[in-house]
Write a structure and sequence with these properties.
Helices cover 42% and strands 17% of the residues. The protein is built from 14 helices and 13 strands.
């Protein structure tokens, strides 16, 4: 059997989730409202401590809707240079909102308040006006790193000095909360809008939500319609997420344990070094002269799928479809590939 560690997006709905989807009460979400989706949106808003939440087909669409509602055209958005919004959303900030990214180069692994302050341009008629600060928690490219609540509060304070809103890409905020013990609402209080994804660690097949004030979510509804994300009988998807929140949220701690086990198994193999995981992502940096592609191919040949994150880095992500026994086997395979 193949062990797929390329991402936590590869999970399949469990039998219980499929049964919940089949039994979902549904309506036309765009016309009269879908009752199951309304329950989900109310629940997510309450978990995040926000007035309202809105379901989106994807986290990318939800992130881009947030940029659209916060950023006038011709302004700039401060985002970590290695953030998902910078690398993996196909220049959506410019294409959809007419804003530009002002990349923040962190002094360490993730963006800090000091980094934001250093990057902000002085107020001048000759510079693009800043309109938004974006944070990512957990930070995918940094290896699932958690930005602490203290640091997030400091970033919010710097943004407020310039009267700027903050948007949080919290695709894996669930993981940050479980790993740190900090509540979702405490994290979310550091931003005007927050995106959370359902199709990663929670194991739902589709979807994300954007949360904020009720007025902001009314604007976000327009953005979702504009971007082609209007929903119909969306309760089928909402039921999957409600099932995940009831049955698959707390178990994220197992993924974090498995990630630490995997990291320990491969660290140092063939001279490779592991970015010690905070959550469920394991980044492995290869020594000088080694390239990722042969390692990825060797793992695949032995039944373990890993990602070629860069020419010299591989990524592995633990999730609900990978057991502790699978992790033991995967660790052996990856270690052998690194040593060969």
């Amino acid at each position: 059997m193949t062990i797929d560690l390329r991402s936590d997006t590869v999970t399949k709905p469990t039998p219980g989730m499929r049964a919940a989807m089949a039994a979902a009460e549904v309506g036309d979400d765009e016309r009269d409202g879908d009752p199951t989706m309304q329950r989900l949106e109310e629940r997510v808003a309450a978990m995040l401590g926000k007035e309202a939440a809105l379901f989106f087909p994807s986290g990318v669409m939800a992130n881009q809707a947030a940029v659209w509602l916060h950023c006038p055209r011709g302004t700039e958005v401060l985002i970590d240079v290695d953030a998902h919004l910078t690398h993996s959303e196909i220049a959506g900030v410019g294409a959809l909102s007419g804003a530009q990214v002002l990349a923040v180069n962190p002094a360490s692994s993730v963006m800090t308040a000091a980094d934001v302050r250093r990057t902000l341009r002085p107020a001048s008629r000759y510079y693009p006006a800043p309109s938004l600060v974006c944070v990512e928690n957990t930070h995918n490219g940094a290896g699932g790193k958690i930005t602490s609540l203290t640091e997030l509060e400091a970033i919010r304070a710097v943004a407020q000095e310039r009267h700027l809103p903050v948007h949080m890409d919290g695709a894996r905020l669930w993981n940050a909360s479980i790993a740190s013990g900090v509540s979702l609402a405490d994290y979310a209080a550091c931003a005007e809008t927050v995106m959370v994804a359902f199709s990663k660690g929670l194991g739902a097949p589709i979807g994300a939500a954007l949360a904020g004030t009720r007025a902001a979510m009314e604007q976000a509804w327009t953005a979702r319609k504009l971007f082609g994300g209007a929903m119909r009988q969306s309760g089928i998807l909402g039921a999957a997420v409600l099932y995940a929140l009831d049955n698959q949220y707390e178990r994220l701690a197992e993924d974090h344990t498995n990630a630490r086990t995997l990291a320990s198994a491969v660290d140092g193999a063939g001279g490779a070094s592991v970015v010690q995981p905070d959550t469920n992502i394991v980044m492995v940096d290869l020594p000088n002269g080694r390239r990722s592609a042969p390692v990825v191919a060797a793992c695949k040949a032995n039944g373990v799928l890993v990602s070629e994150w860069s020419d010299t880095r591989i990524r592995m992500v633990t999730h609900l479809d990978v057991s502790s026994a699978d992790i033991t086997r995967a660790g052996d395979v990856v270690r052998q590939a690194l040593e060969s």
